[in-house]
TrEMBL record:
Keyword Transport appears in the UniProt entry: yes
Annotated family: Belongs to the ETF beta-subunit/FixA family.
Span of domain Electron transfer flavoprotein alpha/beta-subunit N-terminal: 23-211
Annotated function: The electron transfer flavoprotein serves as a specific electron acceptor for other dehydrogenases. It transfers the electrons to the main respiratory chain via ETF-ubiquinone oxidoreductase (ETF dehydrogenase).
Cofactors required: AMP
Protein name: Electron transfer flavoprotein subunit beta
Subunit structure comment from the entry: Heterodimer of an alpha and a beta subunit.
Keyword list, A-Z: Electron transport, Transport
Lineage: Bacteria, Pseudomonadati, Pseudomonadota, Alphaproteobacteria, Hyphomicrobiales
GO molecular function annotations of the record: electron transfer activity
UniProt cross-references to InterPro entries, sorted A to Z: ET-Flavoprotein_bsu_CS (IPR000049), ETF_a/b_N (IPR014730), ETF_b (IPR012255), ETF_beta_N (IPR033948), Rossmann-like_a/b/a_fold (IPR014729)
GO biological-process terms attached to the record: carboxylic acid catabolic process
Organism encoding this protein: Microvirga alba
């Protein structure tokens, strides 16, 4: 069984985000970039399914600039078999990503697409659902646990107030939640081996997908800073302030 795993290159989760002075977006120059954490979980799950003998091939895909090849190499070092880079310097919105992934699914015919529930840069949480709609495939989103069989996959989902298990007929889309697994670190030998694994390149134009944006970012702003605190002289003063200023008593 072939698995397709989309991996996005995003600002590393440890980086303190800075907004561009003109408010047009987030500063990306000289910022550490990494694989989207939910996509690491997706790769880990795919590799575990291969180790269990349930999957035979894992194809990692990234849509982005030339440097997104590094993200694919990370996926290859974790255990993916080959990569496809859809190279573009444009900002690619979830709908365009889903259209590109649809084309690749038609070319590659995977039985399962495992992807992150959301990319931590724009927090869209849209691509998996859009891809399922475009393909007419069933979707199991926010996966907490998966059980893959020959023709079906049971996905236990994190929902408000508990867990829900759905049974999907393959081919299907699964999006990963945080508690599905703990991704492994790539070992040095595997990082070296990954350099020799195949990585094909294509473009949105070659795939016939128009990635022109449909959304316009009106404004990006940092959250307002916290106001400085005050020291009170006595409990009576504190109670008075809670009553008259904070209005919580
Ligand atoms: P989003 O809908 O943007 O929050 O992204 C959800 C998931 O779609 C991510 O976790 C990735 O698996 C996939 N995805 C989104 N954008 C890209 C991209 N440019 N390249 C590869 N995968 C992507």
């Amino acid at each position: 069984m072939k698995l397709l795993v989309p991996v996005k290159r995003v600002v590393d989760y440890n980086v303190k985000i800075r907004v561009k002075p003109d408010g047009s977006g987030v500063e990306l120059a000289n910022v550490k970039m990494s694989m989207n954490p939910f996509d690491e979980i997706a790769i880990e799950e795919a590799v575990r399914l291969k180790e269990q003998g349930k999957a035979t091939e894992i194809v990692a895909v990234s849509i982005g600039p030339a440097q997104a090849a590094e993200t694919i190499r990370t996926a290859l070092a974790m255990g993916a078999d080959r990569g496809i880079l859809v190279k573009t310097d444009a900002t690619v919105e979830p709908l365009a990503v889903a259209k590109i992934l649809k084309k690749l699914v038609e070319q590659e015919s995977p039985q399962l697409v495992i992807m992150g529930k959301q990319a931590i840069d724009d927090d869209a949480n849209q691509t998996g659902q859009m891809l399922a709609a475009l393909l007419g495939w069933p979707q199991g989103t926010f996966a907490f646990k998966v059980a893959l069989d020959t023709n079906t996959i049971d996905v236990t989902r994190e929902v408000d107030g508990g867990l829900q298990t759905v049974s999907l007929t393959l081919p299907a889309i699964v999006t990963t939640d945080l508690r599905l697994n703990e991704p492994r670190y790539a070992s040095l030998p595997n990082i070296m081996k990954a350099k020799k694994k195949p990585l094909d390149e294509t473009t949105p134009e070659t795939l016939g997908v128009d990635v022109a944006p449909r959304l316009k970012v009106v404004k990006t702003a940092e959250p307002g800073g916290r106001k400085a605190g005050v020291k009170v002289g006595s409990v009576a003063e504190l109670v008075n302030k809670l009553k008259t200023e904070a209005g919580v008593l």
